[in-house]
Amino acid sequence: MRHLKKILFFLFLSSSVLGCASIPKETPESATQAPEERFARESLSKAKELEAAGQLPEAWRQYKIALTVRPEDPAAKEGRERVEKALRKGAEEHYRAGLRMQKEGNQAQALRHYLAALRLWPDHPEALQMVMTGKPVPAEKQAARKALPQPEIKEPPERTAPEEEVFASYIDAPVREEPAVDQIAVYRDLGMELYRKGRYQDALFEFSKVLSAIPDDPVAKEHSYRSSFELAVECFQRKEYLAAKEHFLVSLKYNSNCQQCHFYIKKSEELFKEIHYKQGIEYYGKERLAEAIAEWERVRALDPHYKRVDYYIKKAKDIQRKLDELKKESIEEGQE
């Protein structure tokens, strides 16, 4: 009789404790709402604002982020294509201006235009050739390039510092020793080829060799930033938000003026916390306490003060401990 009472008490406590300890204003139904969808809408709205204000590189970035969450969104697709076309046109205009400046003997102004072209279109081969060698791409190679499909434009970097300071730092950089220049060029060219193929991690490895010899190399530095940013976006798309955060941090190492990196680092953290917090609530509602605790502990590790996560972890652990004790007592009494 005593054993039966213990079992009944255990069942009563299991249901009542879990029911009474439900989390206020948070239900499994609310956990099904996707924070990514809200984030995609915000990114799309911001992209349209930036495009209207003429801030095309920033608008392109926002459209791309929106598409990582909603790949088939027609408005985001149209916006990205529209901005890409404008960026390509701007890059070509800078390249032509650079050729005119070079023809007039103004090398410093020519270099500024070539670098500006690469900021808008990193895969512009003629501008890249002029930055690295000072010699234009042969006519036959240009014809071959035009016969091929146009490469997808990569994300222009965010720069808030005056352009003149960035370019002047490159122009005024001291001339380095020549012995390894050919090998450095090989590393740089291989890095660019890998970047164009979307092998961003491998590209970063090659660019690191260039930067170890020439820390201010503009091409290696710029494309290291872009490669890191692309890796961050890929992780973001896979909902690997902490990995995305780390890659955005690496992007900042190469471009400290990337305000978008700061913004998306914060967004990555917010999405990670919200998703795992709500996943914990869903598990809790299904009485899967161990899994709920595991989800909440991931949140607490990143932000100990997020909502009431610390309280709920303690509450769930207390419930789990009491249930375990009752189970143990029931088993012991059954063996007597």
Low-confidence regions: 27-33, 143-173, 175-180
Give the % helix. Answer: over 70%
β-strand number: 0
Work out the count of structural domains. Answer: 3
Element string (H = helix, E = strand): HHHHHHHHHHHHHHHH
Largest sheet: none
Average pLDDT value? 77
CATH class of the largest domain: Mainly Alpha
Task: Write the CATH fold name of the largest domain.
Answer: Serine Threonine Protein Phosphatase 5, Tetratricopeptide repeat
Beta-strand percentage?
under 5%
- Second rung of CATH, namely the architecture of the largest domain: Alpha Horseshoe
Q: How many helical stretches?
A: 16
Q: Kindly, what is the distance between the CA atoms of the first and last residues, rounded to a whole number of angstroms?
A: 13 Å
Shape by Cα distribution: elongated
Q: Provide the gyration radius in Å.
A: 28 Å
The structure class reads mainly alpha
